[in-house]
Structures are given as structure tokens and as C-alpha cells.
Amino acid sequence: MDTRENIMHVAKEMVQSHGYNALSFREIAKAIGVKSASIHYHFPTKGHLGAALAARYTEDAENFLGALQVEPAHLRETVKSYIAAFRAALLNDNRMCLCGIMVAERDDLPDNVRVEVDRFTDVNVKWLEILLRNVHPQMPRKEAASRALAIFSAIEGAQLIARGRGDVKVFDTVVAAYTDAGLLP
């Protein structure tokens, strides 16, 4: 792994564990055994690094979502896979979705980071809207968009509460309650 990739890897873990405000070039440099100047060579500012992290995270999400089936016949497996992606972060040292934790710090984010974090939300909501409209073709577009946002918010919220409790079972319980209540397809 080259220096830039090492920086991205360590920074991603740092943000997922402690948020954007905890992102420290000095700590990243120490973790990968380089000087802070090496970090600045690849990412002139913390904002550049944060935007690169959120952009890559969103691209990874787009690839993941693009590989999921959105046909009604595969609905259960698709939703299960989607939810599992958020659950996986909790299983990885009780981390959060990178963009989910960053959005909680929105007021502190530089504009370029905010744009990328918003794009992550947009990608997820658009994909969920497509899923809903494939399962319920008669559903009006506005309703599908609202419901997609509610689903995305609910899953991010379940992850946040589970992380706060340090217990992935809380995530599972909340997701099951959402499903029983009809929020999740």
C-alpha cells in the first residue's frame, strides 16, 4: 500500500471511530511512520483529506448498491444486504458509517467535505427510491423519495444508537422493530 492509501486507510478508521473533528495529521503520520509534511503533500488541508475520504466512501457505496438486485423477487435478500453494510461498521470496533458520523459534525465541515457527505446521502436515498418504486410501481415518486429518506435516516439512526450503547444487538432490535412496523420493505 502506498503512502496516500495508508493515509486514507488510517484517516477513515480515525473518522469512523471519533469523527471528523478528531482527524489529526500528526496522529496519522505517527500511525504510518511518516512526518506530517508527508500527509500535507498528499492532502494540503484536513478539508482535502475529509473530502477525499467521503468521496471514496460514496464511490464504494455506489459500487456496492449497483451490485444489489432491486427486483421485487430479491427484495428480502437485497434489504438484508443493505442493512448488513451498516451493521458491519458496528462489528468493526463499534465504528460508524463514515458519512453518518461526519454529517453529525456538519457545522464543522468545510464546504468541500459537506458536498461529498451530502452526495453519500443522495446516493443512498436515490437507490432506496428505485428499490421502492420497483417493488411498488404505483407509488408516486414523491412518496417513494420521502419513504427512501425515512428508511435511510432510520438505519443511520439505529446505527448511531447501537454505537452509543456499544451493542450491535441494539441495531438488530431496532431494525427488527422498523421491519415489524412496516418502515423497512
From TrEMBL:
Source organism (scientific name): Rhizobium deserti
DNA-binding region (UniProt annotation): 24-43
Protein name (Swiss-Prot/TrEMBL): TetR/AcrR family transcriptional regulator
Domain of life: Bacteria
Gene Ontology molecular function, alphabetical: DNA binding
Domain HTH tetR-type: 1-61
Record key words, sorted: DNA-binding, Transcription, Transcription regulation
